[in-house]
Amino acid sequence: MLSKNQIKLISSLQQKKHRFANQLFFAEGVKVIQELVKSNFELEHLYTTNEDFTDIASNKRSVISENELNKISALSTPNTCLALFKIPLESKIIESGLVVALDSIRDPGNLGTILRLCDWFGIHQLICSKETVDIYNPKVVQATMGSIARVNVNYIDLDAFLKKTKLPVFGTFMDSENIYKTTLPQEGIIVMGNEANGISENIEKLITKRLTIPRFGDLQITESLNVATATAIILSEFRRQN
Amino acid sequence: MLSKNQIKLISSLQQKKHRFANQLFFAEGVKVIQELVKSNFELEHLYTTNEDFTDIASNKRSVISENELNKISALSTPNTCLALFKIPLESKIIESGLVVALDSIRDPGNLGTILRLCDWFGIHQLICSKETVDIYNPKVVQATMGSIARVNVNYIDLDAFLKKTKLPVFGTFMDSENIYKTTLPQEGIIVMGNEANGISENIEKLITKRLTIPRFGDLQITESLNVATATAIILSEFRRQN
Asked: Do A215 and B120 touch (CB under 8 A)?
């Protein structure tokens, strides 16, 4: 049985200010919750409509009705379980190897997909500008499919960070060097820009190596690639070469 | 001023059966509508809240209020315009060069993103199994960003088609040949499978060349890539080599 206060708390966590105030976020579905439980995320409480997760201590696990789950879920078709986790402290930035940096990514689905790509391509560090959508947004957590547990994510002043880094800084633009014909290093920061505006002006000045994903279709068209698919192509090419 | 019947008709087009019965679909936003208008799509009627598209004949253009647009829009934040188009007859399948074939893709966003990728990589033919989400679904039309006008799309019995084709048939699986180390041809059909289940059993039997996108992260994890990002990587690699 869920109290009104619990419903109110969990629903409020759909908003960033309440996640921040309570230092809590939630995840839904067996797979994502399992990934978070077995990683370093500290479980606050699990709510489930059936007999799963019986290995979780009884004071941290409640069986609720489907109707109750509907009230706390952020999904249009709720799964069978929802879990609250503590937001961990940010770890130190791993400033080596390949690092992906996001300049104002606003769409939760894009951030989740990019995190999943980092995980696939063995990238351990994702850096987000302060304007980037919150990684603990329920839609992001859902889209990451559990990879949120395996990639280090930091929100920082991207401009200040790029000014100081000794790593090469890559960015993609429409008319630069063909990525397929460029020798790519094993270390570097790959900056991906905002969905509508691309890489912002002040960040563009800090790019040390400009790349282009060539277009093979009608060259009259100026439409760009979606940021998540562009990230997929760039990471694939860096890893193929190294 | 919109009549009740017009509102009812346009709203009904969010469902496939009504699109099919009326042979109409709709698109929203200046950019997508412009792309469709300048291509071969036949405009049925344009509804706009402002002074754009003044080059369209007055009997095909109505200025409506924002309130009216809200009633017919499929978007949570409506744009400034919505246009009805006739669903064109399917063209003959272009069975040469690179062709992408979808085996039961269900998510509209994924289909839209894949169509946009086809456009970017100069792929002129997209083949969809009958179970794949309808290309004229408003969410697909929106996600294509206009590239729906530049890629030929056919819905067919995929199994029967692949049994007859003379082109090599590619599919990606978890443990096959590393795509980066495979010499890829300029012609072939690239099959992408369903979001949850991958390529179906009967289609898998018709794959003549099995490929794998190698995972560089923790190899214990069995999580796969999202189908749209996997398509991005595969098309990028085919085009890089050719």
From this structure: yes
**Residue A7 structure tokens:** 């419903």
Chain length of chain A: 242
Q: Does B236 touch chain A (CB under 8 A)?
A: yes
Element containing residue B158 per DSSP (H, E): helix B158-164
Q: Does A61 touch chain B (CB under 8 A)?
A: no
Query: Given this chain, do its domains B4-86 and B98-241 carry the same CATH topology?
Result: no
What digits encode the pLDDT tens for the residues A23-82? Answer: 999 999 998 999 899 887 999 999 999 888 989 999 999 999 999 999 999 998 899 999
Across A172-189, average pLDDT: 95
The structural domains of chain B, with segments of one domain joined by +, span 4-86, 98-241
Min Cα–Cα distance to chain A from B229, Å = 5
On whether any CB of chain B is under 8 Å from the CB of A123, the answer is yes
Which pLDDT score is estimated for B222?
A: 67
Q: Which chain B residue has its CA at the smallest distance from A125's CA? A: B217
Nearest one of A214, A167, A213 to A190, comparing CA atoms: A167
Nearest C-alpha in B relative to A181: B240
Architecture of the domain spanning B4-86 = 2-Layer Sandwich (3.30)
CATH of the domain spanning A98-241: 3.40.1280.10
Looking at residue A222, its pLDDT comes to: 67
Let me know: does B96 contact A198? Beta carbons within 8 Å: no
pLDDT on residue B1: 79
Distance in angstroms (rounded) separating the CA atoms of residues A94 and B127: 43
Reduced to 3 states (helix: H, G, I; strand: E, B; else coil), residue B191 is strand
Under an 8 A CB cutoff, do A218 and B123 touch? no
Q: Name the band, by pLDDT with cuts 50, 70 and 90, for residue B38.
A: confident
Q: Which residues of B touch A119 (CB under 8 A)?
A: 217-218, 221, 223
Instruction: For residue range B126-161, list pLDDT tens digits in order.
Output: 999 999 999 999 999 988 878 888 899 999 999 999
B210 touches chain A (CB under 8 A): no
Judging contacts by C-beta atoms under 8 Å, the chain A residues touching residue B117 are 225, 229
- How far is residue A140 CA from its own chain's centroid? 6
Angle A133-A136-A140 from CA coordinates, rounded to 5°:
65
Instruction: Let me know: does B45 contact B83? Beta carbons within 8 Å.
Output: yes
Give the range among A119-128, B108-117, B221-230 with minimum mean pLDDT: B221-230
For residues B9-29, b (16+ Cβ closer than 10 Å) or e, as one string? bbeebbeeebbeebebbbbbb
